[in-house]
Write a structure and sequence with these properties.
heterodimer, A: 360 residues, three-stranded antiparallel β-sheet, 8 strands, B: 152 residues, Rossmann fold, two-stranded antiparallel sheet, 5 helices
Chain lengths: 360, 152
């Protein structure tokens, strides 16, 4: 007769950079049940956003997540611009795409590195993070900060990118692409990577739709859905096609993200070549009126939704954030049962959990 | 000085914990360990077990739920233990100071030895903070010994 053992994984765990607790019920080495315990990073940013001025909130929402901070700011600004009927200058839209894709690029490399770390492939982890530093250097050169760049503002962007810097971005992404060509085949075809990821944590197409999964996890299960397909900002001019994989396991999720790094490089090249000249910021007057707006953008982890309600004053009535990891955590309860305990870190990382987004 | 006294200055092991950070400082702490900054060449290792660690690196403002975990981690570390608060949130609460679930800086929960401000704190600043903490270790050891002598 075998008895159940409960193993708490986290909140402090070497694999997770963030505190997430999973109570894993085991029968021998097999996981039979999983109960996530959240709340270690909850700060109450949604409530604080009601206390602040609506222009100050741009800086606050950037601090919801440090990895995709710029994309949070874009989503919030899009909602405010929708309420106040602000038209963006075309150059601002393109600059938002450029910084957004740079963030996606560094986030995907970060994740590919962490995945390699989760099954002990230390040198691959170091290699990905080495290439990622070049993207951070561009961010620092164009905005002055490495991680939280504060470049987005209501009505456009705060800073322009000079032609000289645009040329530099092109040469750096060329160099990155060359270096990625050397290590992405390792993720795609190495036996040690495949043995730890193929057939691990499978989510079928129907189950993925039923659970409401978003982002690369959904696209790895064979569903072509990406918020960039709606053509927000300048994406409508860039001929965007989502990356889709069929098998729905950890390997497919790694492949989707690996291909998306190349896709981001392509989008960056296109956006820089098509970049129109002109203003970068539209001036506006007054406060958001008594109206509500919803905006959707694609984060590196999936679809991000902001609901913003104004009340005619400088303070907002309500700011609600639905982050991608919030939709992807329930998928863990379907991926983990039936798997070995040793596979748990790989499976949990495969959804790219961002706890600071989820708990705000 | 015994080898025990010099080892945690020559090769300090760090434990990283996120008490409610936005990930910005977390990835900068990790970036310190990767090839561009590579603190491993100085013998600094990131460990997962608090009982192996000499320096506790904390990112993010303390909140009501993570305070208990943080206190546990601090108590499990062997003396002399140093605490480095990384990022403006860990120093004082920063931009999140008026959030209802935020207690403020990490020093509201455990004693802090070195403060590294910045949003997000740069890897250079984090390395500098850890080096400052190392310089304070002999002082702390002396303090602990005099306290022991008093109680004995």
């Amino acid at each position: 007769m075998s008895t159940r053992t409960v193993i708490p994984m986290g909140p402090q765990h070497p694999v997770f950079p963030e505190p997430l607790q999973l109570k894993l019920s085991l029968k021998d080495e097999k996981i039979v049940d999983v109960a996530p315990a959240l709340g270690y990073v909850h700060r109450g940013i949604e409530k604080a956003a009601e206390k602040n001025d609506f222009t100050q909130n741009v800086f606050l929402v950037e601090r919801i997540c440090g990895i995709c901070s710029f994309i949070h700011a874009v989503c919030y600004c899009m909602a405010i611009e929708d309420i106040m009927k602000i038209e963006l200058p075309p150059r601002a839209n393109y600059l938002r795409v450029i910084w957004g894709e740079l963030h996606r690029l560094h986030s995907h490399m970060l994740w590919l590195g962490l995945l390699a770390d989760s099954f002990g492939f230390e040198s691959l982890f170091m290699k990905f993070w080495e290439i990622r530093e070049r993207i951070l250097d561009i961010l620092e050169k164009t905005t002055g900060a490495r991680v939280i760049i504060s470049a987005c503002a209501i009505g456009g962007v705060r800073r322009d990118i000079s032609d000289e810097h645009l040329q530099e971005i092109l040469t750096v992404i060329d160099k990155c692409e060359k270096e990625l060509n050397g290590i992405i085949p390792v993720v795609m075809s190495d036996t040690t990577v495949k043995r730890r990821t193929v057939g691990v944590g499978v989510i079928e197409k129907e189950k993925a739709i039923h659970l409401g999964i978003v982002g690369p996890v959904l696209r790895a299960s064979g569903i072509a859905q990406d918020a960039r397909m709606t053509g927000y900002g300048a994406y409508k001019y860039l001929d965007f096609k989502p990356v889709v994989e069929e098998s729905g396991d950890c390997y497919a999720r790694a492949v989707v993200r690996a291909k998306e790094t190349y896709q981001s490089i392509g989008l960056l090249r296109k956006a820089i070549n098509q970049l129109p000249s002109g203003d970068i910021l539209t001036k506006y007057k007054g406060n958001p009126g008594k109206a509500a707006a919803v905006s959707r953008v694609e984060q590196p982890r999936g679809e991000l939704i902001y609901y913003v309600e104004g009340n005619g004053t400088k303070n907002l009535e309500r700011v609600r954030v639905r982050t991608p990891t919030f939709s992807n955590v329930p998928a863990l309860s379907k991926m983990l049962p039936g798997m070995e305990l040793a596979d748990a870190p790989v499976i949990v990382l495969s959804i790219d959990p961002c706890i600071s987004c989820t708990e705000r | 000085m015994s080898s025990f006294d010099t080892s945690n200055i020559k090769s300090p092991w760090i434990l990283h914990y996120d008490t409610g950070s936005c990930n910005g400082c977390d990835i900068e702490v990790l970036a310190c360990l990767t090839p561009l900054y590579d603190v491993e060449r100085f013998g600094i290792l990131n460990v997962g077990n608090p009982r192996h660690a000499d320096i506790l690196v904390i990112t993010g403002a303390a909140n009501k739920r993570s305070a208990r975990v943080l206190r546990n981690l601090y108590e499990q570390m062997p003396d002399p233990k140093m605490v480095v608060a990384v990022g403006i949130c860990a120093v004082s609460g920063g931009v999140l100071h008026n959030c209802y679930n935020v207690l403020g800086g990490v020093d509201k929960v455990i004693p802090v030895d070195v403060y590294v401000p910045g949003c997000a704190a740069r890897p250079e600043a984090i390395i500098d903070g850890i080096v400052l903490a190392l310089q304070k270790i002999p002082e702390k050891r002396k303090l602990l010994k005099s306290r022991e002598a008093k109680t004995a």
